[in-house]
Amino acid sequence: MLERLLSLAASGVMLGGILALGAVGLTLVYGILRFGNFAHGDLMTVGAYVALAVMAFLPSGQPLAPFSFGWEFLVALLIAMPITGIVALAADRLIYRPLRRRRSSAVILAMASLGVAFFVRSIIYLGWGSDFKFYYQGRIPMAIQLPFGVQVRPDQLFTFGLAFILVVLIYILLEKTKIGKAMRATADNPALARVSGIATDRVIFWTWMIGGALAGASGVMLGLNSQVRPEMGWLVLLPLFAAVILGSIGNPYGALVGALIIGIIREVSTAFLNPTYGQGVAFLVMIIILLVRPQGIFRKVGD
Questions:
Q1: pTM above 0.85, yes or no
Q2: Domain map of the chain by residue range?
């Protein structure tokens, strides 16, 4: 039982890595623009399908041992990330920015993002249909044996390693670069940031590009570890919001911790309950934590 629990916890960490990429992008957008982007999950789906389309045009090579994927998958991932960022930026330029200039409320912006989510999903249905798709079918690499009897698939290790690297890069961006400091200042007080001479339009541009790119990477990783389908991003949207709220809204580092907690609880609970209840248990734990600490585990960046 102990070995099983440890293996489930390890799987939860890997799942948390996937959720973390989406949650960090989601909390960045909220921190800067002050609205919940309900289209964020479907941006993950965009990334997954962009990678699928790119791989269709590339010759399939041998798997990069010990993983199930080849070099063409890595190329598709690198292409999917900026393209997803561009899609997110296009949605802002066409829909969200005009609404902000009309001083629309956060509720109106959130409802607009819900419309964007349905629109994006409809485009995916038209282009690829509703069937499940796979990056690689029939490739199941052997699990790696870790200490204490923990078993994980190599693809899961790659997913967590990628999530860790990208989150570290986000930390360096926010803490060490000029644009990162401008983003933190804008998230803390947008009006004061504008008065201080910070180019908030440039901050918003990079917020959408970075948030979209992270969502794209999260969608590709989710597709690699399960399957690609039009509803995949929508189905993980609530866990993404749960991770953001648990880690304190607007705090990228908190979103990472919140995602790991949600992922671990969701997986470990399957040792005692039917797997269909895993998400419900994760939300229950989130509610309990918020009753003790209503502002979330961490404070918002800038507080």
A1: yes
A2: 2-292
